[in-house]
Design goal:
Largest sheet: 5 strands, antiparallel
Shape: globular
Oligomer: single chain
Number of helices: 26
Helix content: 40-55%
Number of strands: 18
Strand content: 5-15%
Mean pLDDT: 84
Radius of gyration: 29 Å
Amino acid sequence: MIVFSELYNLKGAVSFSMEIKDQIKRSVSITDVVQSYGLDLKPAGKNYKALCPFHTEKTPSFFIKPESDSFACYGCNKFGDVFTFVQNMENIGFVEAMNLIIEKFNIPVEKKKGFNYSREKKYSVINDIALKYFSGNLSGSGEGNKAMEYLRARDISQKTINDFSLGYALNKWDGFLNFAKNKSLDLDMCIELGLLIKNSKGEVYDRFRGRIIFPIFSESGNVIGFGGRTISDDKIKYLNSPETPLFTKGKNLYGFNITKQFMREKKSSILVEGYFDVISLYQHGIKNVSASLGTALTPSQIHLLRRVSDEIFIAYDSDDAGIDATIRGIERMFEQNMNPNVFNLKGEKDPDDFIRKYGSEEFYETAGSSEDGLRFIINTLTKKYNTDIPEKKRDAVNQVAQYINKFDDPIVKEGYITIAADFFNVNEKELDFSKAIPARDSKSQKPVELLTSEKILLQSILKEPSFISMIEPLFNSRLYSVLNIGNLLKKIFSNYASENNMNYDLLQEELSPAENITLRIVFDSVDEISGDISILEKNIESSMINFFRLLNEVEISEIGKKIKRAERDGNIEEIKKLIIIKNKFNQQKYKVSLGGDIAKQ
């Protein structure tokens, strides 16, 4: 049997990216990285604790563990290593997080030949080239002049055009397609990025045609997608990039890469709906603004704003759709124990119209007289229901109770119950929470029940993830099915294979609540085991042998049931065959050849 340590060296499990990852961890501690984001760490035994940067809390439940170079929050259940922390704080991918730490802490890293930025880098290069193409069209074509006239009519200056890298897509079906071919770009990748579309007939054509282009940047400044506003007669006014390998709408905010510094300075942020809302406010000096990219507000977007601001103002459109979107946004923030402020746009359709009509001074005055989210909901419901009618008043009170129930902080909830009861002039006990859906509490979720061997295997691969590529070939669908952690292991293996590294941030999104808690609990216990390769090898071999023994027992049990059925049917020949198979299973013993082989003896 080839021992695991030999395979470890023979197969070159530690790739260049893993070497750089380890070098980063040796050069800077997770404590230093966390403190660089302004978290106030307090000693807690051999660890440190702080208020979690990922959710609102009054009592610290966020812990830094220097010995394992990891963090865990027992309030929102986020956990991981230093790279996961930076990914969450900056809303970026793993490779971007590595590079950010390298640059931020001046870590001397030799990026050897073979350090693979994977497809992500190739996608980024294509988007950068597309950005230059769109920008060039805005200033270098007859159509571009028409687009410039449109922007000038909306009072957009050249400086603002440059600040936001605005561009133009020619009103042609093959404008970017021909450009991509001339630049020898990978057309399949261009389709994956949403720059091109391939129809059912196999025809390829431009997605964006005759539109002002608004590049969408990640927080770190990389182009991840595009939005387009028609200047022709297209019935679809706005068109965005679809979800792509680089672009997830719910995880990004338009303009945030530029405006987050102003949010930090003001300690407040303004959330709007449209590209022009962001651009117009910014141009008029209201620079702490971003847009939610035409999607319902998500916890990830709220997290971005919370990280850089103490107060959030919602300034969505004033039409019915905008009011509905405002209420949904307030509801999402309530779930994060936040009560935002809501702008009164004084009858104007959107912030773009408001700022161009009234100017920045009036905008600031409106901000000062804005109402909080709960009062906005109460006032909106009061207009909807005639509260002079007792039955209608009851309906309004019950709906308000459902919104208040989104808070899971008992002190905050109690305060808002009092406010609502006073407004409606009812006893606090009259607010009916029976129909309300309580906010999800991760602490109420039960973890997956683990066998000892399952826990040991998870501990071992979390301690040294490079083992994963060697044990994954030992698993098949039958083995996955008999393990409590079968589904969890599938997701871990898939996660590791995508980047040859554990991406905890991505993994946590794919796991069920119970699996997430299970993984976090095991992650917390990794320090209990040795990091010695030979010991980890033995742990894994022992666990795998136990797994196959368990599978063997299941197979024997299944054969026993088949024998009973054959006995009932009087099928003597079938009984004889099954008994022979059962005896073989009973005699079966296993040796694990790590790296992809299971030896039966």
